[in-house]
């Protein structure tokens, strides 16, 4: 794959948490070029339970540096297939990303994003090389800028809980609509997730900041 946020985040977390690198920054050589991950310390609050197996952990975010993904207008002759797959009658906007060729759909509200129940078999018939990004403006009282979900049944993943690469397009789109470069985004999948995002317009890079935890460990005998 050209770009995989999960793999980059997991690899960086493992390197940092096991002290396999003596640095706050690591670089990965990928099919999307050099991707950078760095540790960003944060102030621990009283209600922040940042512990694992009863042991106190170092408090930091992991910031991933990814290439921005522009969007382009979609061929509207294919809109009906997408509406049928999503199970909706109307949308606010519809684009296609110029990198992964994801379909990018904006719904009328954050609630419509969260309540969406797509038809995955129909999604496989939709245009685009990879998946469908769905997003909507968040209500002001939520503390978020926008909601999103990402569906990729063509690759055997009906829904990605928090798709890092999708935010490369989400950041560029919402920059145009909201007039700012810093966002707090909510991934409205059943598992859910929260991301802090910065768009570096000059260099066309997207910084995604969040946390990771180790859920399983094992040994490999060779």
UniProtKB/TrEMBL annotation:
The record's annotation in InterPro entries points to:
Phenazine_PhzF-like
- Membrane-crossing ranges are none
- Pfam families attached to this UniProt entry: PhzC-PhzF
Range of residues in the leader sequence: none
Q: Name one GO molecular function term.
A: isomerase activity
Which family, according to UniProt? Belongs to the PhzF family.
**Protein name in the entry:** Phenazine biosynthesis-like domain-containing protein
């Amino acid at each position: 794959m050209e770009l995989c946020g999960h793999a980059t985040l997991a690899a960086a977390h493992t390197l940092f948490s096991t002290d396999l690198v003596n640095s706050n920054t690591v670089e990965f050589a990928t099919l999307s070029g050099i991707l950078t991950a760095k540790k960003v310390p944060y102030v621990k609050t009283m209600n922040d339970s940042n512990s694992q197996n009863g042991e106190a952990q170092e408090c930091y975010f992991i910031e991933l540096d990814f290439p921005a993904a522009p969007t382009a207008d979609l061929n509207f002759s294919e809109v009906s297939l997408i509406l049928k797959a999503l199970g909706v009658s109307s949308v606010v906007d519809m684009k296609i990303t110029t990198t992964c060729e994801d379909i990018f759909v904006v719904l009328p509200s954050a609630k419509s994003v969260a309540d969406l129940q797509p038809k995955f078999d129909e999604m496989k018939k939709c245009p685009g090389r990879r998946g469908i990004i769905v997003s909507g403006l968040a209500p002001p009282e939520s503390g978020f800028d926008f909601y999103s979900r990402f569906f990729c049944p063509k690759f055997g993943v009906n829904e990605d809980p928090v798709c890092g690469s999708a935010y490369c397009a989400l950041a560029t789109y919402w920059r145009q609509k909201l007039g700012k470069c810093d966002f707090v985004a909510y991934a409205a999948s059943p598992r859910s997730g929260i991301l802090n995002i910065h768009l570096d317009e000059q260099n066309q890079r997207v910084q995604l900041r969040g946390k990771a935890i180790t859920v399983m460990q094992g040994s490999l005998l060779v």
